[in-house]
Amino acid sequence: MEGADDERVTRLARRGRRVQNARMTLLPRACTLIAGALSAWLATAGHAAAPAPGDVPPPDVGRTLSGEEILLPSYAGKAVIVTFWATWCPYCLKELPILQNVQDKAGKDQMAVIAVNTEKFDVYKRATRIMHQSMTMELVSDASGRAQNAFGVRGLPHMLIIGRDGRILRVYDGYAEEELDAIVADINEALRPLPSPAP
Predict the structure, then answer these.
(1) CA distance 79 to 104
(2) Are the CB atoms for 135 and 148 separated by under 8 Å?
């Protein structure tokens, strides 16, 4: 009888160890799953939906070297190009002089180009001091990442063409040279005068 009791205790002890081992392996797995789900939710919650053609874009695009806040509603009635760029992005650096030329040809009274730097403020400050020698476009900083988040920027270059009505005409995300003809057509469309209001 005593041997049977010992055997039962041994079986219970083994079963208890198996349950404990299962709990110990399940707990880290559960924690990993919960942490993964939580980080995915936070990533989604932290990023606003990217504005699309037809939408009115978020108003705030960043700050100038002097700290002035640049707001898109102040460009009402003009065609606007907002391009996000960085000094490490070779295509961005190739694009900026082209956009400056577009603004020069259209005239600042008709079109505004706003180049939003996505790097730390010190990098933006150095780059802007050099670029101001040859460019008159609006050079702004989004070191905080707030505008990038609001505009749904996931890669560079990232450009929005906004019509005179203040609505997004097209969004180009990570585009290539093959799209230049489409970009030119969209810029011409953005520059088209607004229809006169009916009497």
Answers:
(1) 13
(2) no
Q: Which residue has tokens 């009402």?
A: 76
What's phi and psi for 152, nearest 5 deg? 70, 35
Q: For 16-55, give the DSSP string.
A: HHHHHHHHHHHHHHHHHHHHHHHHHHHHHHHSPPPP-TTS
Judge contact between 94 and 159, C-beta under 8 A. no
Q: Which helix (H) or strand (E) holds 82?
A: strand 79-85
Beta bridge pairs of residue 160: 82, 171
Q: How many helices (H) and strands (E) does the chain have?
A: 5, 7
pLDDT in tens, 105-141: 999 999 999 999 999 999 999 999 999 999 999 999 9
Q: pTM of the prediction? A: 0.75
